[in-house]
Amino acid sequence: MKALAAVRESGSETTRLVHLDVPAPEVGERDVLVKVKAVAANPVDYKVRDGMAPGDKRILGWDATGVVHSVGGNVRGFKPGDRVWYAGNIEREGAYAEFQAVDERIVSHMPSSLGFEEAAALPLASITAWEILFDRFRTHLTTPSHQKSILVVGGAGGVGSTMVQLAARVANLKVIATASRPESVQWVRGLGAHHVIDPRADWREQLSALNVHAVDYVASLTASGEHVARSADILAPQGAFSLTDDPAHLDIGVFKHKSISIHWELMFTRSLYETDDLHEQGRLLHRVAQLVDAGVLKSTVNGPVRNLDAGTLDVTHQELRAGTAIGKRVFNVSLG
Q1: Is residue 191 domain-shared with residue 232, that is, in the same domain?
Q2: Span 112-159, pLDDT tens digits
Q3: Could you tell me which residues are beta bridge partners of residue 261?
Q4: SS3 state at 168
Q5: Eight-class DSSP state of 131
Q6: Listed residue (325, 299, 133) closest to 217, CA to CA
Q7: Which helix (H) or strand (E) holds 5?
């Protein structure tokens, strides 16, 4: 099959993207083999590239939609022809290829109201945002006498764009998002953020001007090491802080006096360790598909959908690394 892979050649300190002919993936008993139709780029792409050793070759891409081509012997929930979406398993080859084998437990039927390109923007971000809100923060278990609040740091990014919607429309939280450019401010407001603050200015002053004295949750999706002290300052006692990135230093001591809980979120954890609740990712995606079809959530694709090729994807990876992307960048997969 045709694939787009990252390659780090011996003696090189960098990777490059190349088009290759590779064998089709082996299909396990619990796997569905998907004919990939569309993919979205994510920071995990360049992070995997950065970690590759000389001589390594990886097919990237962990955000996809497609059509089931065939199924393993123990698959019960899917059949050939089904339209599906998923994020996949980071230990297996990714979706920048004609075909991808994925465990059925982390796959769901995609929304019937969306095309392949629109839907491809949502799986990884939805899983990440959902797990933070409902598995880590457990917002669904609270019955507050007043509406609780969340600060989403990096509200216009891929995960932030979905989290703003879920927090406002499903978790019923008052949503404050950070955004620094006029276009990103407009984007997060359009997704349902009640307030927007500038991450570069004083957080407490901006929140006070909004009559928000403290927030119950902080979801830090970017530059977490730089925002720890400010997060601790504006969090309510017994609040919660989550992060998804990889800061070189993280001083969690600032959270002690307020008894703030700290949660690291990696949406690949369930598939990496084949946890007993692995199937919950498939259920989660099914619930998100229902919310999309009901008009509660919308796609976060932003910008033109292009055909997947090495040059365009490389430029997108640079944009993601710079932290300037708004929403998600999506590609058609027509490699064959």
Answers
A1: yes
A2: 999 999 999 999 999 999 999 999 999 987 666 678 999 999 999 999
A3: 240
A4: helix
A5: I
A6: 133
A7: strand 2-7
68-95: per-residue pLDDT in tens? 999 999 999 999 999 999 999 999 999 9
∠22-4-102 over CA atoms, to 5°? 70
Tokens of 269: 């954890």
Is there a contact between 294 and 120 (Cβ–Cβ < 8 Å)?
no
Q: Are 100 and 24 in contact (CB under 8 A)?
A: no
Would you state the structure tokens that stand for residue 315, as one six-digit string?
């430029």
Measured CA to CA in angstroms, residue 184 lies from 244, 300, 324 at distances of 20, 13, 9
| Contact by Cβ (8 Å): 264, 245 | no
The total number of structural domains in the chain stands at 2
Tokens read off for 254: 């600032």
Q: Is 269 within the bounds of a domain?
A: no
Please tell me the distance from the alpha carbon of residue 88 to that of residue 280, in angstroms, as a whole number. 13
d(CA 125, CA 116): 16
Number of H helices, E strands in the chain: 10, 16
> Per-residue DSSP letters for 257-277?
GGT-EEEE--TTHHHHHT-TT
Helices 158-169 and 182-191: crossing angle, nearest 10°? 40
Quote the DSSP letter at residue 23: P
Tokens of 60: 């990237």
Per-residue pLDDT tens over the stretch 21-47: 999 999 999 999 999 999 999 999 999
Q: Is 4 helix (H, G, I), strand (E, B) or coil?
A: strand
Could you give the C-alpha distances from 235 to 140, 171, 191, 217, 259, in angstroms and in order?
19, 18, 23, 7, 10
**What is the span of the domain harbouring residue 255?**
125-264
Any residues with CB less than 8 A from the CB of 33 and at least 6 apart, and which? 24, 25, 27, 68, 69, 70, 71, 99, 100, 101
Instruction: Determine the Cα–Cα distance for residues 188 and 204; give it in Å rounded to an integer.
Output: 20
Of 240, 264, 288, which residue constitutes the final position of a domain? Answer: 264
Residues 186 and 249 occupy one common structural domain: yes
Pairing of strands 149-153, 215-220: parallel
The Cα–Cα gap between 31 and 121 comes to 22
Q: Are 216 and 317 within one domain? A: no
